[in-house]
Amino acid sequence: NAGVTQTPKFQVLKTGQSMTLQCAQDMNHEYMSWYRQDPGMGLRLIHYSVGAGITDQGEVPNGYNVSRSTTEDFPLRLLSAAPSQTSVYFCASSSPNRQGQGTGELFFGEGSRLTVL
Amino acid sequence: GDSVTQMEGPVTLSEEAFLTINCTYTATGYPSLFWYVQYPGEGLQLLLKATKADDKGSNKGFEATYRKETTSFHLEKGSVQVSDSAVYFCALTSGSARQLTFGSGTQLTVLP
Fold first, then answer.
1. What CA–CA distances, in Å, run from A22 to A34, A57, A91, A110, B49?
2. At residue B97, does pLDDT exceed 60?
3. Which residues of A touch B100 (CB under 8 A)?
4. Does the distance separating the beta carbons of A109 and B96 come in below 8 Å?
5. Ranges under pLDDT 70 in chain A
């Protein structure tokens, strides 16, 4: 059971470099989202998607881009990395209920730890 | 906007002790409430949930009751084990329910 798979698990970047965090899910979930986890701040939503071709901004979207070309994949792009983006990143997926609303029952990947020097 | 406030950690208990982790919330409408757990080196997992006032969520010996009058959803367990050592997050979803709002997390360490 793969569930939600994130790669890479660890990455070190220099300021100004770009990279993509990959996220794939095999549960046919319509909703996918990216969170960042920082000490003392819990998880904060970066971007989310309610289906292929549809994305929207969360609480902290600046410096990040996303796209959703397929149901399975939801990559997160850092265009020009900054030290403030040093964090642990989690991808999550879920399915809506029959009324088309989110249930809050998210399935998380194991996380990607990013350090920007 | 919506917000979740958790008790400050870290919390250290001896095995078989009683656990309470406080959680209060601010939200418009009628939110659903959740507790997620993060074991070391892993992603978050749903522990329990409650979708309306006075509902009690329970799983693995943990319980939490949705108290609308005090806007609280405190997590409790009668006898903790070493394997319960983890970070616990309170969360809510409301409105269109497309995203969760998380608390800051509480680190629990249980000593043998």
1. 11, 18, 9, 12, 29
2. no
3. 43, 45, 104, 106
4. no
5. 1, 101-102
